[in-house]
Amino acid sequence: MNRLTTSGAGYDLARFPEDPRDPFRAWDAADEYLLRHLEGIDGASPVDLSGSVVVVGDRWGALSTVLAGHRPVQITDSYLAQRATAANLERNGAGADAVRLLSARDTPPERVDVLLVRVPKSLALLEDQLYRLAPAVHAGTVVIGTGMVKEIHTSTLKLFERIIGPTRTSLAVKKARLIHCTPDPAPVRASSPWPHRYELPDDVGAVAGRTVINHAGIFCAERLDIGTRFFLKHLPVRSGPDRVVDLGCGNGVLGLSAALANPEAELTFIDESYQAVASAEETFRANTDAGAEARFVVGDVLAGTAPASVDLILNNPPFHSHQATTDATARNMFHGARAALRQGGELWVVGNRHLGYHTQLRRTFGNCTTVAGDPKFVVLRAVKR
């Protein structure tokens, strides 16, 4: 936990889940720059926050916690960000209702007077959210984006310009930058181009030729990523009433492949991204019979899964948290998988070879075998003894 100090107060903030080994803070220079600007510390006039304030993409709740006195609406695609926000509000003495928490799938407010956007890693997610919020923006709305310099590109500014109105950027401070956007008084109202659909290639087993439905923000939203493609060629062949989890499911193609290959399997799709779980469910429904059943869970790894209840877990863990490279998510997934698996249950993982997941799996499970590999990826198998 670290303390963020503003001109008016200090705030104890942490990411979620809290991990004493995690070297990263719950905010960065981009959050600080935006908060200083709102207060007028950078020489501009303070921003009037008495109206409807919406905070989009607040990564760990730092912005929402500091602005809690203005009762903002937070919109995020991340379940973990929502949990972090709730925990940070509580530890800083704000009521649970001080911030209205909405997901990227929820209907946004009808009117927005101040729109604050933490620029996401995914340009597609930014595009989708701006389209969804544009009808609520009016001529007097203050629109400010923030991000690190490496996160703000010409394409980022063009999105604000095309969807909201004329856009300019600030000078960089501590490698962070602000985006100032003036709503167009006569905007062209178009709808979001998302979700995106594409057909899977012919060499990926049970899902060959199937249609994938991807909502904005999903990794490799316009094509099958090469790691998943490699994994699909080496999935275990099983039969019978297995309980199977597609952990960190993304668009759900791994779980769909398991379901098509073994119709008796009971599938659960889990991801911390609301957009991912929506993608997985729509992809599953589009490629299975009307009576096919599966569970779709937005959550923190396997926190809601009963111990020793799962036969097989398929996992393509992320190794980034926003712009930071970290194995924290993979570690949490591996430990959660061991608790959720029955004796003899298996965790199958695909990852970049250089990440060295075999070491962590041996540490967690006491065993790990390499199922397949190429110069870039490995498929690993760990068994709960």
Number of strands: 20
Order of helices and strands: EEHEHEHEEHEHEEEEHEHEHEEEEHEHEE
Number of DSSP helical runs: 10
The biggest beta sheet reads: 7 strands, mixed
Percent of residues in helices comes to 25-40%
Query: Structural class of the helices, strands and pairings?
Result: alpha/beta
Question: How big is the Rg?
Answer: 22 Å
Give the strand order, joined by hyphens, for the main sheet: 5-4-3-6-7-9-8
Mean pLDDT over the full residue set? 94
Which range does the strand content fall in? 25-35%
Q: State the distance separating the first and last CA atoms.
A: 36 Å
The rough form would be described as globular
Give the low-pLDDT segments: none
Question: How does this structure look, described?
Answer:
The protein is α/β, with parallel strands linked by helices and 385 residues long. The protein contains 10 helices and 20 strands. The chain has helices at residues 29-39, 62-66, 79-91, 123-133, 154-163, 226-232, 253-261, 274-287, 328-340, 357-365, and strands at 2-5, 10-13, 53-56, 73-76, 100-103, 112-118, 137-148, 167-169, 176-181, 196-199, 211-214, 243-247, 266-271, 294-298, 310-315, 320-321, 324-325, 341-352, 369-373, 377-383. Strands 5-4-3-6-7-9-8 form a 7-stranded mixed sheet, with helices on both faces. It has a 7-stranded mixed sheet with strand order 14-13-12-15-18-20-19, sandwiched between helices. The chain has a two-stranded antiparallel sheet with strand order 1-2. Strand 19 (369-373) and strand 20 (377-383) form a beta hairpin. Helix 4 runs parallel beside helix 5 and helix 9 (328-340) packs parallel to helix 10. The longest helix is centred in the last third of the chain and has 14 residues, at 274-287. The radius of gyration is 22 Å and the shape is globular. The protein starts with a strand and ends with a strand. The mean pLDDT is 94.
